[in-house]
Fold this sequence. Notes:
The protein is α+β, with helices and mostly antiparallel strands. Helices cover 29% and strands 29% of the residues. The protein is built from 3 helices and 6 strands. It has helices at residues 3-18, 38-48, 110-119, and strands at residues 23-31, 58-64, 67-70, 76-78, 94-98, 102-109. It has a 3-stranded mixed β-sheet with strand order 2-1-6. β1 (23-31), α2 (38-48) and β2 (58-64) form a beta-alpha-beta unit. α1 crosses α2 (38-48). The protein binds zinc ion (ZN). Residues 70, 72-73, 75, 86, 88-89, 91 line the site of zinc ion (ZN).
Amino acid sequence: MHELAIAESIVTIAERHAAGRRVTGVELKVGHLRQVVPSALTFAFDLLVEGTTLEGADLRIEEVPAAGVCRDCGAETVLPYFPLQCTSCEGLNIEVTAGEELLVDSLELEDELEHALTTDGGRSNG
Ligand SMILES: [Zn+2]
């Protein structure tokens, strides 16, 4: 279950950036080629954040489709599954251009949310 290791690094990164502030949301970009199971990652994340400044934070996972450029014919291909094969010439000589991402895209911090609500002149639902 490599989701646990991934969740650990997400928590480490988020805590470092938050610098003691409370984290309410984490947006994650995960490339398709990472073969991460989102439910397993969310499960591991929820376990790890207990008792930290990330407790209760909402983990949102955005999956990035795999894509590549064929080194043989130059065609760009979206690669929905393995093996990575050019849809134009069926060659396997693919340079991967997307799908290997694994990064924390943005963090929602409680401080910034409070700030936004104050400058707005009050809470508005809708
Ligand atoms: Zn090709």
